[in-house]
């Protein structure tokens, strides 16, 4: 297999003489930071070199390049179809909020107020009334819910919008994970009964679980937020929680809130029920954002760059010709084109890299940095044997497959990569979960970057105390969620932090 072994040879050469450095010199490519050694720098380098993000000249704002947007769009296509099946309709409300309406939400906007960005000028003149930019759209939408909902026949009202929001954060910005402007969907629904609202909260949470587990290949835990960590304006908050083993931090993946009747009271969202009595609606709101993509990079990325799960990769297979000396170059190029044709007709997202100003080795590194799940190399020997060489991005395994079985084998390999990414991520996440019973065990596990499952009394004051006692350079520990899937809690179990009777198992840790 001359073509592929040529690729191997140049790799081997690079590996012998000085490893990474030589690769860098030879190709000008490669990630210089190591995930385990310098995670923050590694992450920035990976999202930029992988052509997902470009840094912008306003801190906390990032350019989302096509490589990012295609991932976002694949998740959007899934989620949008799923909520349409639930009879949720898309709409679009304005970006701007008048101060009067924003302040109607006073109680819980209080804590968020420092993050609200305002427009105060047009040209050189001061606006008579400054205008806020939406950090979320409750206050934008609910005055109109009040207008549109009159009788029980107007319910349920189920709207969603795909939009951007702005939160002027001051803690260290991170692409996707904490940015001052981000993309999300926000769903806002109103029902006649609490039971309907409760059901929807969980249906949406299940869709969020599927985005993480089935698309992004990231295991998540479904659960309920503590009183301290829930959305203050709501009744209760459910979430999917992911974990980044390398940093030992939890990350809230998406939230689905039951708002109860709090906003209905504030915004007077009333209706006449079937008995002709005046009643208040029950509301939910729920969102997932471009943060999902950051979690994907952090969980799967490695020292060669991005690793994309096949289900979200805009290019699932990259075909690279490996011409060699006086071999039949045209034949190799034709075989590459035919491979692309066959695979794209079978429904795969596949491209060939025919650029003649880059070597095969350079192309390997380039597409590895971009995380493409499978690379197909075609050289003279492959051509002669009517086969191609496939290299997996996730584990570097090399497999020769006959052109005759191309479609079946690629399909199987992609499914395999998808499953294996999830399995490896789950195994690493599970290895970080530590069950603790006492405060000392808790502190030790926290020092070892664990995701901690502990019996808790579920008292707000105790959570505040845990935060205070763990405050430090790395940030305080907080509750992540109480999993719906609760292990048995034997009679007499006591809270790890207060010594009072425990009421539930709760996950704790440092988080993003
Ligand atoms: C920042 C500034 C102003 C979060 C904020 O989670 C207000 C807020 O209300 C704010 N940051 N929140 C909570 C958002 C709650 C809720 N909104 C709809 C969601 C899902 C989508």
From TrEMBL:
Region feature (Disordered): 1-23
GO cellular component, one term: cytoplasm
UniProt-listed Enzyme Commission number(s): 6.1.1.15
GO molecular function annotation: ATP binding; proline-tRNA ligase activity
Domain Aminoacyl-transfer RNA synthetases class-II family profile span(s) in chain numbering: 94-309
Gene Ontology biological process terms in this record: prolyl-tRNA aminoacylation
Keywords on record: Aminoacyl-tRNA synthetase, ATP-binding, Ligase, Nucleotide-binding, Protein biosynthesis
CDD domains tied to this protein: ProRS_anticodon_zinc (cd00862), ProRS_core_arch_euk (cd00778)
Substrates-to-products reaction catalysed: tRNA(Pro) + L-proline + ATP = L-prolyl-tRNA(Pro) + AMP + diphosphate
SMART domains for the chain: ProRS-C_1
Domain of life, per lineage: Eukaryota
HAMAP family hit by this protein: Pro_tRNA_synth_type3
Protein name, entry field: proline--tRNA ligase
């Amino acid at each position: 297999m001359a073509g592929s072994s040529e690729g191997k040879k140049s790799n081997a050469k690079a590996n012998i003489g000085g490893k990474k450095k030589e690769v860098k010199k030879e190709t000008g490519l490669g990630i210089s930071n190591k995930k385990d050694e310098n995670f923050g720098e590694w992450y920035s380098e990976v999202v930029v070199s992988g052509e997902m993000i470009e840094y912008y000249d306003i801190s906390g704002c990032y350019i989302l390049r096509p490589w990012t947007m295609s991932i976002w769009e694949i998740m959007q296509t899934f989620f949008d179809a799923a909520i349409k099946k639930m009879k949720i309709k898309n709409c679009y409300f304005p970006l701007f909020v008048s101060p009067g309406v924003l302040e109607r939400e006073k109680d819980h906007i209080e804590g968020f107020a420092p993050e609200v960005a305002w427009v105060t000028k047009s040209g050189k003149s001061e606006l008579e009334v400054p205008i806020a930019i939406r950090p979320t759209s409750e206050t934008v939408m609910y005055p109109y819910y009040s207008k549109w909902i009159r009788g029980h026949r107007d319910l349920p009202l189920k709207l969603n919008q795909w939009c951007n929001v702005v939160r002027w954060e001051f803690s260290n910005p991170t692409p996707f994970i904490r940015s001052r402007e981000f993309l999300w969907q926000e769903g806002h629904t109103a029902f006649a009964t609490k039971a309907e609202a409760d059901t929807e909260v969980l249906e949406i949470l299940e869709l969020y679980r599927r985005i993480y587990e089935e698309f992004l290949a990231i295991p998540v835990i479904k659960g309920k937020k503590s009183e301290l960590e829930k959305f203050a304006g709501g009744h209760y908050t459910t979430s999917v929680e992911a974990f980044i083993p390398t940093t030992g931090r939890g990350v809230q993946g998406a939230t689905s809130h039951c708002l109860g009747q709090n906003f209905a009271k504030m915004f007077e969202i009333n209706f006449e029920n079937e008995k002709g009595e005046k009643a208040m609606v029950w509301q939910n709101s729920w969102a997932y954002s471009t943060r999902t993509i950051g979690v994907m990079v952090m969980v799967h990325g490695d020292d060669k760059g991005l690793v994309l799960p096949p289900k979200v990769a805009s290019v699932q297979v990259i075909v690279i010709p490996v011409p060699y000396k006086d071999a039949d170059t045209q034949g190799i190029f034709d075989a590459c084109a035919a491979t692309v044709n066959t695979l794209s007709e079978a429904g795969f997202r596949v491209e060939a890299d025919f650029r003649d100003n880059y070597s095969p080795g350079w192309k390997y590194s380039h597409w590895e940095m971009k995380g493409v799940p499978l690379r197909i190399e075609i050289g003279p020997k492959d051509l002669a044997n009517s086969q191609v060489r496939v290299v997996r991005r996730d584990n570097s395994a090399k497999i020769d497959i006959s052109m005759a079985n191309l479609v079946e084998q690629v399909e199987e390999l992609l499914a395999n990569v998808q499953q294996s990414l999830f399995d490896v991520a789950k195994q690493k996440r599970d290895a970080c979960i530590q069950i603790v019973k006492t405060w000392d065990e808790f502190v030790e596990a926290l020092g070892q970057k664990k995701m901690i499952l502990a019996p808790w009394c579920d008292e707000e004051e105790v959570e505040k105390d845990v935060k205070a006692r763990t405050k430090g350079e790395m940030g305080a520990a907080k509750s992540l969620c109480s999993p719906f899937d609760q292990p048995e809690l034997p009679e007499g179990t006591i809270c790890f932090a207060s010594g009072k009777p425990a009421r539930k198992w709760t996950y704790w840790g440092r988080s993003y």
